[in-house]
Amino acid sequence: MKFAPLVVNMLLAWFQGEPLNDNNMKHKIYYLSSFGLLTLDQLSKQVVASTFSLGESLSVTSFFSWSYVQNSGAAFSLLADSGNNQRYFLLSVSLIASLALIVWMCKTAPTLRQRLLGQSILLAGAIGNLIDRALYGSVIDFIDLHYGGFYWPVFNLADSFILIGVALLLFEGKHANASSEL
């Protein structure tokens, strides 16, 4: 089934109150998982933005702090000083990546559960940061890990979802190769 008819059928079924099934949504649980993680990401960012002032930090332990920063660049502030053009570039990349993930999920066999899980977690992260870029021109980051004089770049839940999703997809490939060699 093509992507556009799948989405149209899914939306029609939802508006008409029909239950979702294999004909109108093949991987319902994975899309719902993405939506749940996306909601968690957006809520966490709103709590931080409404509780902290920009630049404010609260030490929780000797290695962990809540720190409200805005990242106008890509991961770890890459391209942060590239002017306003990077906003549109990163928005475009995020949008294309999110759409590609949705298409890839639609084409993934239901038996490839780890791949679908990785795709859904990655999708939540990609869309979470896409929403921030579209609304604010930057991404809200707040998880600050440090030890001694070493500081990891501040990140958010969406960044964590991207990392976990990619790891699941990479591990799935290695696991499948190891299984086929036995």
Can you put this structure into words, describing what you see?
The chain has 182 residues and is an alpha+beta fold. The protein has one domain (3-181). 60% of the residues lie in helices and 12% in strands. The chain has five helices and four strands. It has helices at 3-15, 28-51, 85-107, 113-136, 157-181; strands at residues 57-59, 64-71, 139-147, 150-151. It has a four-stranded antiparallel β-sheet. Helix 2 (28-51) packs parallel to helix 4 (113-136), helix 3 packs antiparallel against helix 4 and helix 4 (113-136) runs antiparallel to helix 5 (157-181). It is globular and about 45 Å long. 27% of the residues are buried. The mean pLDDT is 83.
Low-confidence stretches: none
User: Strand portion, in percent?
Assistant: 5-15%
Oligomeric composition of the shown chains: single chain
As for the number of domains, it is 1
What's the shape?
Answer: globular
What is the number of helices?
5
User: In this structure, how is the largest beta sheet organized?
Assistant: 4 strands, antiparallel
Number of strands: 4
Mean pLDDT: 83
Distance between the termini: 34 Å
Order of helices and strands: HHEEHHEEH
Helix coverage percent: 55-70%
Q: What radius of gyration results from the CA coordinates?
A: 19 Å
Tell me the strand order in the biggest sheet.
1-2-3-4
Q: Name the structural class.
A: alpha+beta
Essential attributes:
5 helices; globular; 182 residues; single chain; 12% strand; alpha+beta; four-stranded antiparallel β-sheet
Secondary structure layout plus pairing:
Layout lengths: L2 H13 L12 H24 L5 E3 L4 E8 L13 H23 L5 H24 L2 E9 L2 E2 L5 H25 L1
Antiparallel strand pairs: 1-2, 2-3, 3-4
